[in-house]
Amino acid sequence: MTITIRNAARADIADIAAWNQAMAWETEQKALDPAVLARGVSAVFDEPRRGFYLVAERDGVPCGCLLVTYEWSDWRAGDFWWIQSVYVAEAARRGGVFRQLYQNVRDRAAQARAVGLRLYVETENERAQRTYAGLGMERCHYFMYEEEFPRG
Length: 152
Known about the structure:
Elements: E1 3-7, H1 13-28, H2 34-46, E2 52-58, E3 61-73, E4 78-88, H3 97-111, E5 116-119, H4 126-134
Parallel strand pairs: 4-5
Antiparallel strand pairs: 1-2, 2-3, 3-4
Protein name: GNAT family N-acetyltransferase
GO molecular function, one term: acyltransferase activity, transferring groups other than amino-acyl groups
Pfam families: Acetyltransf_1
């Protein structure tokens, strides 16, 4: 099986939205509003400053994706690249798809002179944590907090 990684295109929006929907349900049992999700995915294509998606294909069939966004670090005078919205279709899991996606992002970030890569993972998702550690990522010492604002 051949795995290739490519930049996502607008034609991938429906797949990316569906994968995000599946990921939210699998990790948090959270049902996302499909219309909001479609707008959110499309917005990345509308404003490249927001980031970019990569799509993995196995034997020419799309099977996963991730989103890269940027965080400026004044301490390091450079961008961290955040890996977000990671999803690999169930049939393609444990087959090296995420490893290829990660390596592609890592290579691009190094070429762009980013200062590092970051991602967050559910505290209970031990399999993902082992995967990230196996790729050389280290658990950092920060907790993440958030406050969501009502959308009107």
